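Re: the request from the purification team.
They wanted to know what the chain is likely to look like in 3D before they choose a buffer screen. I agreed to run a prediction and write the result into the notebook, where they can find it.
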Amino acid sequence: MKRRYRLLTAILCLMILSAGFMYADESVLRYESVIVDTFDGESSAVYSDNEAPIVWKVFGSKFSTRPVADNIEDPANFPKQTYAMDTWPTDLFGAYPENRESLGVFGVWSKYDRMGNNQYEIVAGEEVDGKWVQKPIELPGRVKTIDWWAWGSNFNYYIEIYVMDHRGFEYQLLPVRVDTLTGKKIQSSLNYSGWQNFYIDIPNYIDQDVTYQPRNANMKITKFVVYTDPTEKVTDCYFYLDHLKILTDTHESTFDGYQLKEQSARDAIWGAQSEE
């Protein structure tokens, strides 16, 4: 009986070890910090799937102040956008960074004709043949967190980020910040003065992996949205954004014939129409 028990125990141990070896490679993690956009001017070096600069464009909601009503993109209309150079979050770069002249931030000046549920969107895109085209930012690996720095001016406004999964479904995510005065985590609120760091842990319900090859299921950033509290003042609010980055697991399992999963290989074999 004891001999039979030992045999069963040995078989069970071998099965457990075999299962561990079988799935060990899939459980390997290789976290990397990747800067998505530095906001150091319009042609800043950023991560992009085609290495083209990300071009952000701001769109205001219905009651945005527009003196030139028939031309939404007229410079006199709100919201306005710009890059402010030679400025940065001190908590991020220090008081006297060596490359201070090349550092910049993305700025938005908003104004509305009435209080209420106002908002503006900061949308990711790129220049194609001299025209702006909306294009979500494809992120490498399986993203764990997204974080950025935002400058507030004590307006009771809020910020959200929108991401898209590989199937095209879009998700609204609310970031948190750690208040520098109280040490408490505060969700989404821009009601503070100066620079603070926002971050969000990507929820598990956003699928970033698939079973079949090629297993490309990259998440994408589509836009930021800043919206007002219905009772808050809506004239002359200034907002700045800097240093958008991610923490992502870039580990990829290899196998015999791994190269055939690459887009370049598929294009060479099947033509450029073989896009995912």
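For the purification team: The two ends are 58 Å apart (CA to CA).
Please add any questions underneath this entry.
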